[in-house]
Amino acid sequence: MYVKNDNFLKNIIANLASLIKLCWVINLYLINFFYRHADATIMNKEIHTPLLCAAIRGNLESYEELVGSGVDVKDVDANGKNVIHLAAEKGHDTFLKVRSR
Prior knowledge:
The protein is elongated and about 60 Å long. The longest helix has 32 residues, at 6-37. The protein is an all-alpha fold. The protein contains 5 helices and no strands.
């Protein structure tokens, strides 16, 4: 189907961009909600606590929130890897700079 109206296409693209941004914001909200209200010592199937998951994802906001709530920063996974090891493996250089302060 050929659409002659360029404004129609621009509106569709703008609406899709807005929807994508909204989904991203909702996703961040949900992640932060669960980090705040979940047991900080619970582990996923890879034996990672929420703090270690934040390091793996390079999620500074969640990491700082967890540390601020008193989570033990010396957590290690089943292989003895801590937040520095896991962030480095995933190439999160910014995370490593903040963590080393």
